[in-house]
Structure to design on (861 residues):
């Protein structure tokens, strides 16, 4: 065959490509070369692309020398130009397993698949026929399939001798077969494997017990230890056909000294009692990659609280800062600046940026519980955690660095991220990356690394040192707080700082400092409190009435003294501390809310949203956005989300009111809008849950209700005059046939359906959780009051109002309005209401009844 086309390749690589191609020709058969010549005519791009792969990868050349038929298979099947679906490797290996007689055949099958696919992946990646994301996806899918195939084959083989592992008879479900669960960590867990990645694995299994049905029974752990050892050997051991993937088990509990496989209970116990901060960091990317995936989901759910704290976790900042310092020291100590992963501005710094936000905010913002770095970065931009420009720079840098990593590793199939040092290898890498020479490539690399390092240095950075004068002031406040000053000096300092009641302020501080609550806190808690209190006292001193402000804030301090993550938040965010003091100085109600619900401190971080007053539409959209991430069947999560939504927006309204941005009338409007948004969501939630179980009720004409139900607000809610502590006067009305059954698999009568609908709405609104209740609901204004049905039909409501209602009930109807539910029923209700309010009345009789009602009210008061 004639020489390969090399016009697109730098001149300095021509001779090498020529020599490498001659080596391939010498090993190939004549028929194979004739075949290739024909293919190059039929596929004009093949020769050029082949030259690119040969020029960029010595590993590619070595594989073709050994088995030229691999290239034939890839070309004939069009695999070099085809993007594989996710299940491609899984399906292929599943069909192969049925034909394998022994372990050697399994190992040979896995290795030959890996050889072929590395050829394909390098060819596609170096010729940019596949994006970086497609390359990492397919390598990760290949790893998943190989692990699963090895696990499945060895499980079946071991079971022939030892039987099937079973749970103990005393377990909740009795004796059940046990399968291994394999967790992929790091890049495998995130579908981010590179061209020569090792794979970080953890082996686990659901329950202890013993095997059954074999020649010799053994306990489950022994079985799964043997299974794990065999799987590692099938993947990691080097044979004449090479290896499949290098396996690293050091991320398992207790590291190299730990058991190779642990039960779920042992896993949970370890992470709960001994899990370290770096293991939280690693667990972000954990994923079930093989084995019993259903059981694996249960394990991941159980371990999630270890990785993601329930609320914003500012206690992770110190740990992340220490981790960052360790990274920086390692770069210097090991001279890693020439490493595109570990050096300054490298891949690890991008991962650190993303995972720092995940550790801190992932518990609250479940969107961030994402394994892939690129998706996390996009979410950080969407949630305004990072500027869009910064995220765009990080995304571009990440692709560039990962492509560079592939160029380095694809050359010799070695797990390294170090830039080459000799000129020829540098030119080869520059060519693979699409640059004319090394200098052009290196200049582009440095721009990306500089961008990354700038953003990296700004994440979890140490607080800037204050000016000497301010440091001196904080030292004095620390001396006051810690009791180092005598009474005379303490009072003098407080008076000079403007505290209007210095003696009471000193007494309250002493009372807090010597309280049993503070005496029992751990050393780290005491340290953080001592760091926080001087900052707080310094900020309080700037208030108009410092003593009053201090007294309002001390309950808050008592509330968070054992939850020191909040203290860290305020120390790390001076603006949030300032807003805390300003708002509590202005409003005792806000001070009480923050003491009851410190989680609201998150709202103080952004003054742009804190003092914003969204309209009714925006309030609904915000609630929808927050709830989209929660499954409909997770009632508890919806209840918590609704409560936080209400607390956060009410706090914003209060902040806007005390700052003079909102008038009293507007405050009532916005509080009513919040309640409307909440009621709409609660109705939608309960409707979805009930209809999923029982189907939908029917109207009298037989048509399906959807939902033919409304919530009517009376009193302050009806008149858009809600105050911060108002309850909700509600009436529920439907327009269905109460006697017709619903259309679901478990039908119930329509009347029963709507009664349950009303009960569940009230339950969600009334129930006390650790975030309080949404609203206290008063249903006494419904027809016949407490004696009447919880949910009335529109017909019954109309008849009651026309025939049986008291005058005061007609008065109450004046402020009644529909706040959630079906627009069609709303129109019908408004006609009924209009008819009642506009009908002719005897003025003398009306005057008498109103007077009687006023007298009764006066007597009750």
């Amino acid at each position: 065959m004639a020489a390969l086309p090399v016009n697109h390749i730098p001149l300095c690589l021509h001779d090498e490509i020529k020599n490498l191609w001659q080596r391939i020709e010498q090993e190939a058969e004549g028929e194979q070369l004739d075949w290739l010549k024909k293919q190059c005519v039929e596929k004009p791009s093949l020769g050029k692309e082949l030259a690119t792969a040969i020029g960029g990868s010595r590993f590619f050349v070595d594989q073709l020398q050994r088995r030229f038929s691999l290239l034939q298979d890839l070309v004939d099947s069009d695999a070099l130009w085809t993007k594989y679906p996710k299940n491609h490797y899984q399906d292929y290996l599943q069909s192969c397993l049925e034909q394998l007689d022994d372990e050697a055949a399994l190992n040979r099958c896995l290795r030959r698949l890996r050889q072929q696919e590395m050829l394909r992946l390098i060819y596609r990646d170096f010729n940019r026929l596949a994006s970086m994301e497609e390359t990492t996806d397919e390598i990760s899918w290949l790893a998943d399939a190989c692990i699963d195939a090895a696990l499945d084959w060895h499980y079946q083989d071991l079971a022939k001798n030892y039987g099937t592992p079973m749970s103990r008879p005393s377990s909740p479900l009795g004796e059940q077969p046990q399968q291994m669960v394999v967790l992929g960590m790091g890049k495998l867990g995130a579908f981010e494997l590179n061209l020569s990645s090792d794979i970080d694995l953890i082996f686990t299994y659901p329950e202890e017990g013993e095997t059954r049905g074999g020649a010799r029974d053994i306990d489950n752990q022994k079985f799964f230890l043997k299974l794990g050892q065999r799987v590692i050997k099938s993947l990691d051991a080097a044979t004449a056909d090479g290896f499949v993937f290098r396996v690293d088990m050091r991320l398992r509990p207790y590291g190299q000294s730990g058991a190779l496989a642990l039960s779920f209970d042992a896993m949970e116990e370890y992470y709960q009692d001994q899990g370290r901060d770096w293991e939280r960091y690693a667990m972000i990317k954990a994923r079930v990659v093989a084995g019993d995936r259903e059981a694996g989901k249960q394990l991941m759910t159980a371990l999630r609280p270890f990785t993601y704290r329930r609320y914003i976790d500012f206690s992770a900042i110190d740990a992340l800062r220490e981790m960052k310092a360790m990274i920086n020291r390692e770069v210097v100590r090991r001279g890693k600046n020439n490493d595109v992963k570990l050096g300054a501005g490298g891949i690890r710094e991008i991962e650190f940026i993303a995972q720092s936000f995940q550790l801190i905010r992932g518990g609250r913002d479940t969107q961030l519980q994402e394994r892939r770095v690129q998706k996390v970065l996009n979410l950080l931009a969407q949630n305004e955690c990072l500027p869009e420009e910064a995220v765009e720079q990080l995304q571009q840098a990440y692709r560039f660095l990962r492509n560079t990593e592939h160029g380095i590793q694809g050359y010799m199939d070695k797990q390294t991220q170090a830039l080459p040092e000799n000129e020829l290898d540098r030119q080869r890498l520059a060519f693979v990356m699409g640059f004319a020479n090394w200098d052009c490539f290196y200049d582009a690399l440095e721009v990306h690394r500089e961008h990354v390092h700038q953003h990296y240095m700004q994440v979890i950075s140490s607080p800037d040192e204050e000016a000497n004068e301010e440091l001196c002031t904080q030292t004095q406040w620390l001396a006051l707080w810690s009791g180092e000053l005598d009474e005379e000096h303490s009072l003098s300092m407080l008076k000079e700082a403007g505290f209007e009641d210095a003696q009471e302020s000193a007494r309250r501080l002493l009372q807090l400092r010597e309280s049993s609550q503070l005496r029992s806190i751990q050393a780290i808690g005491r340290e953080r409190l001592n760091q926080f209190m001087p900052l707080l006292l310094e900020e309080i001193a700037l208030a108009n009435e410092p003593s009053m402000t201090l007294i309002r804030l001390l309950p808050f301090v008592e509330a968070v003294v054992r939850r020191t993550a909040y203290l860290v938040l305020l120390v790390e965010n001076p603006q949030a501390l300032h807003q805390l003091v300003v708002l509590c100085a202005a409003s005792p109600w806000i001070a009480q809310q923050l003491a009851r619900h410190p989680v609201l401190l998150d709202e103080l971080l952004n003054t742009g949203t804190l003092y914003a007053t969204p309209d009714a539409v925006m309030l609904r959209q915000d609630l929808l956005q927050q709830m989209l991430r929660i499954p409909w069947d997770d009632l508890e999560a919806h209840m918590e989300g609704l409560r936080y939504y209400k607390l956060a927006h009410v706090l914003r309204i209060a902040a806007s009111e005390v700052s003079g941005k909102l008038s009293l009338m507007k405050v009532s409007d916005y509080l009513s809008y919040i309640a409307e948004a909440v009621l709409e969501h609660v109705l939608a939630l309960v409707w979805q849950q009930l209809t999923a179980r029982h189907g939908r009720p029917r109207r009298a004409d037989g048509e399906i209700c959807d939902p033919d139900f409304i919530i009517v607000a009376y009193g302050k809610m009806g008149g858009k005059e809600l105050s911060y502590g108002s309850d909700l006067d509600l009436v529920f009305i439907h327009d269905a046939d109460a006697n017709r059954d619903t259309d679901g698999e478990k039908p119930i009568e329509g009347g029963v359906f709507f009664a349950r609908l009303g009960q569940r709405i009230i339950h969600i609104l009334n129930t006390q959780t650790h975030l309080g209740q949404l609203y206290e609901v008063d249903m006494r204004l419904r027809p016949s009051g407490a004696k009447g049905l919880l949910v009335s039909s529109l017909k019954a409501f109309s008849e009651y109002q026309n025939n049986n209602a008291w005058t005061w009930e007609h008065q109450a109807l004046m402020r009644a309005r529909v706040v959630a539910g079906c627009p069609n029923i709303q129109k019908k209700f408004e006609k009924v209401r209009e008819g009642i309010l506009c009908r002719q009345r005897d003025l003398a009789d009306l005057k008498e009844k109103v007077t009687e009602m006023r007298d009764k009210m006066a007597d009750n008061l």
